[in-house]
Design brief:
alpha+beta, about 550 residues, single chain, disordered C terminus, 5-stranded antiparallel beta sheet
Length: about 550
């Protein structure tokens, strides 16, 4: 009896230690649970054998004829068959139609669904650039850099109407954790994807729950002890509308068989500072949350949907109508949500897309746009070829609406990973490429190319009037002219490339032009006419002998076309 009690006690202690470090979900639908269970059974036998030898001074011989050996073998065999049955219950061979329906695509209208972004809203920073900017910002914080490092999360979110990437700090090592864990991690870093500005946000109350914690406050361990039966996907770091840091922990729900059809059914929101947890059904997640669905899971489901439209065997042999996602994806911020963008192409691996999809990462709403065009990698090579002498490399494109035309936008980076130029590439005609050292310059050239290809491609309006004020501004070595016309407070901006006459523009000149509306300014596409008006002033250089001014013969004005 003593041996059995000690065996149970030893197994409980060992089981707790295994659970502490392994952290398996106590859930039969979690594959790792069965491994944990088998290990616990093995520990019972090992502990009993060791304690019997130490306490009773005898050795237990396990043989097939022993009463307790046969049941063990039977249980192991039945368990192995059960595991095999669970695995087979969810394989695509038998459930292809269910895998196809993991994600539902709706037909979308590009012009209606994708709003034209103002140039002040176009994100130019990818994750790699954001990491460089964040690390540089951290290097400026002399009071923190010796104790903390920047985590690699850099989650893309919408924050107060702007696309940003956000990541927490992390303890540099065990000693740094021991010295600082009582106060927690003091800050997180945000990187504005439009302006490229990195900011370190200090917190009144430190982050005490994170992956860099070592004991109970370790993020994965804290979630497991609060929700021992939940199967968690990777948690994402986000901030709410007030800047409070949270961990967004999706709960996996297997929708096909026992272990197949991985999807999200619930979400835990964990306050990173206080540890407060709230469990939501996926359809009730607060609006400010952006990353519920893991991007790799979405890509997997899109590939299932493209592969099994006509069943499993067609995906292997005939492959009629079989589609797949392209090699890469990016994010688009729209309507206070973050959308995953990726192209859809034929499984035959040609260099063109049949269309593209946008997936809302909070709701999983998916829309497909049948816009044939170049693959993203082809557009990237095309943009790089435009500046091949500079050897810049392109970021993965994001999709924009430019004059109701699907357009790839890319940043071009130098060898140090710094953004140097920008490129616009037409999705349907990827030979239409425009680059510039500023977004405005690249956009101007792109619009000009679109007009050359199709005069109706860019929506423009005409305006005319007298110039009431004009200023020239040099940005990144490029001169632009800002001016207003009589009878209106609208601001017009014209790049120097628009006309060689712009340097001579002054107040009082009469102009006629074509423009497109962008942000709070009107961008001049073409200067149709300019009339320079000069009014002579009375001369006082001469005088009569009586000291009276000599009158001019006449007042004249010259008009130059």
């Amino acid at each position: 009896m003593k041996t059995k009690l000690l065996t149970a006690l030893a197994t409980l202690v060992e089981g707790f230690l295994v659970f502490w470090f392994w952290l398996p979900a106590i859930n039969p639908r979690y594959p790792g649970f069965w491994g944990f269970l088998f290990l616990m059974v093995a520990l019972v036998f090992v502990n009993y054998a060791i304690l019997t030898y130490l306490l009773d001074k005898r050795t237990i011989h396990f043989n097939v004829k022993a009463n307790y050996a046969k049941p063990v073998l039977i249980v192991v065999g039945v368990a192995a068959l059960a595991v095999a049955g669970c695995a087979l219950s969810g394989i695509p061979l038998f459930r292809a139609n269910d895998y196809k329906d993991l994600i539902q695509k709706q037909e979308g209208n590009f012009s209606d669904d994708i709003a034209e972004l103002k140039m002040s809203q176009i994100p130019v920073v990818d994750k790699d650039s954001a990491m460089r900017l964040g690390n540089r910002k951290m290097g400026e914080m002399v009071d923190l850099v010796s104790q903390f490092e920047v985590a690699d999360d850099y989650t893309q979110i919408n924050y107060q109407g702007r696309p940003i990437r956000v990541t927490p700090l992390a303890y540099s090592d065990l000693i740094k954790w021991f010295n600082n864990q009582s106060a927690g991690i003091p800050a997180y870093i945000t990187v504005d994807m439009v302006t490229q500005e990195a900011d370190l946000v200090r917190l009144e109350q430190g982050i005490k729950y994170s992956p860099s914690e070592y004991l109970y406050r370790n993020l994965e361990r804290y979630l497991r002890f609060h929700y021992p039966t939940k199967i968690f996907d990777d948690a994402a770091f986000e901030i709410d509308d007030n800047g409070t840091p949270y961990w967004i922990a999706p709960v996996i729900n297997y929708r096909i068989g026992v272990w197949g059809g991985r999807d999200i059914g619930e979400v835990v929101l964990l306050n990173a500072c206080t540890g407060e947890c709230t469990l939501y059904p996926v359809e009730e997640v607060p609006q400010w949350v952006d990353q519920v669905y893991n991007s790799d899971m979405i890509i997997e489901q899109l590939d299932y949907n493209g592969a099994y439209q006509s069943g499993y065997w067609n995906s292997v042999f005939g492959q009629r109508g079989v589609l797949r996602t392209t090699e890469g994806y990016n994010y688009i911020a729209s309507n206070d949500d973050v959308y995953l963008y990726t192209g859809i192409t034929s499984v035959t691996s040609d260099q063109s897309n049949t269309g593209f999809v946008l997936v809302n990462l909070r709701t999983k709403e998916t829309k497909y746009y049948a816009v044939p065009g170049a693959q993203e990698t082809s557009a990237m090579r095309s943009a790089e070829g435009k500046v091949q002498n500079l050897k810049y490399t392109s970021t993965f494109p994001i999709l924009l609406n430019v004059g109701d035309r699907p357009t790839y936008f890319m940043s071009l980076k130098d060898a140090a990973g710094l953004v140097k130029m920008y490129a616009f590439v037409d999705v349907e005609r990827y030979q239409v490429v425009a680059t510039g050292s500023t977004i405005a310059e690249a956009m101007q050239q792109y619009n000009e190319l679109l007009v050359q290809e199709d005069p109706t491609a860019v929506v423009s309006e005409e305006a005319s009037g007298n110039v009431t004020s004009v200023q020239s501004v040099v940005i990144d070595g490029n001169t632009s002219y800002y001016f207003k016309l009589s009878g209106s407070d609208d601001v017009y901006v014209a790049a120097i490339q628009v006309s060689d006459s712009l340097p001579f523009l002054k107040e009082g000149d009469q102009v006629k032009l074509k423009y497109s509306q962008d942000d709070s300014v009107r961008r001049v596409q073409e200067l149709l006419e300019i009339n320079h008006t000069q009014a002579s002033q009375p001369s006082t250089s001469g005088s009569s002998g009586t000291g009276e001014p000599v009158p001019e013969e006449s007042a004249s004005s010259d008009t130059e076309a």
